[in-house]
Design a protein that fits this description.
9 helices
Length: 357
């Protein structure tokens, strides 16, 4: 009888140990899966704003955050594109000299920052460049060099001071008939802003998004290493490899490039970065300007303004925004602002970092 009770007790203990072991294994497995899930990046590639949108996101709810970001980017496109019927930009252009147009909070933020950079750069960046840029047709089917008379006719319509905004009631108006705005130059930076806002709200702890030449970085990876952004050789665009790498922990990076959406006519290259004062592509010795800033809109606008201003005249503007800058000229000289000297490294001996002065 005693032996029977003893065996029963041992059997009961064995069952308990078996259950406990199963629970422990299950907990460890779940913990391992969670750790792996947090460390593994969610990557996706989609299309919006007529270009590729690439996202790499780490942490909880990454797929949902990516979907939310893409949704916001596509919504922004319907508001910011001058080509889309009933967009807020199109309404502003159609109502030039007639009436005010109501704006969303996002569009108000974009226009406010645009005008701020326009004012500080003394018009080197100007959202009212549309009457001139429309003549050139960069990136479209009707690219051409306008004749001098066409440009002289449209130049008086270009002046950021014609565009007024009322922040209290969220509305905007162009005060010059025939004037018009385009936000193509900063739309990708604005989209990166919107995407990172979704990352913050949906749970991921880190992520990076690239939309054409605009890159937005959010949060810190588990290994605590900075994000590394490689730059292609601006003189060998069809070949693989890069000429330098930028390390960044958070913020936005935008590049204005001589060859971006350029075209050739009569054996001469014309690039899309127009000087609002002349109506022609900016004539500087620069081939590329890259800007880093904690705001995507500002980064984009500064890159355009600095390309027009030139390296020497850009420093006050960069200092005002505490922005970082990488200038590359036609002689393969690379100039860095002091705040990027430790972050940017050249890995191509054809290029040389030079003193700013």
């Amino acid at each position: 009888m005693k032996q029977k009770k003893m065996w029963k007790k041992l059997r009961y203990q064995a069952i308990l140990l078996s259950i406990l072991a199963t629970v422990v294994v299950t907990v460890i497995t779940i913990f391992f899966i969670l750790i792996n899930h947090e460390e593994k990046a969610y990557e996706c590639s989609d299309t919006a704003m007529k270009t590729d949108v690439k996202q790499t996101i780490y942490g909880h709810n990454a797929p949902e955050a990516a979907k939310a970001a893409l949704k916001q980017i596509k919504k922004l496109e319907t508001q910011i594109s001058w080509e889309i019927a009933e967009s807020q930009v199109q309404k502003i252009n159609e109502n030039a000299a007639n009436g005010w147009v109501n704006l969303s909070s996002g569009m108000m933020d974009i226009l406010s920052k645009s005008l701020e950079v326009s004012n500080l750069s003394k018009g080197a960046f100007d959202p009212t460049i549309f009457p001139i840029s429309n003549l050139w047709g960069f990136g479209g089917k009707n690219e051409k060099v306008p004749n001098k008379e066409e440009i002289l006719e449209k130049l008086p319509l270009v002046d950021y001071k014609y565009l007024k905004i009322n922040k209290d009631v969220k509305r905007a108006k162009l005060f010059k008939k025939g004037s018009g705005i385009t936000l193509d130059g900063i739309s990708k930076g604005a989209a990166c802003n919107f995407a990172i806002k979704q990352y913050k709200e949906n749970g991921p702890y880190a992520g990076i998004i690239s939309i054409e030449h605009s890159i937005g970085v959010y949060g810190e990876k588990k290994d605590h290493k900075p994000w590394r952004i490689a730059f292609e050789d601006p003189f060998k665009r069809t070949e693989a490899g890069c000429f330098g790498v930028l390390e960044i922990r958070e913020g936005h990076v935008f590049t204005s490039d001589f060859y971006e959406k350029s075209f050739t006519q009569d054996e001469k290259i014309y690039h899309k970065i127009l000087n609002p004062q002349t109506g022609y592509p900016a004539k500087k010795d620069l081939i590329r300007v890259t800007i880093t800033h904690n705001d995507g809109i500002i980064a984009n606008a500064l890159a355009i303004a600095c390309f027009v201003l030139g390296r020497e005249n850009s420093l006050p503007l960069l200092s005002h925004y505490a922005a970082g800058a990488i200038f590359v000229d036609n002689d393969k000289h690379v100039f860095l602002t002091a705040n990027l000297e430790e972050q940017f490294k050249i890995n191509n001996n054809e290029f040389a970092i030079c003193d700013w002065k």
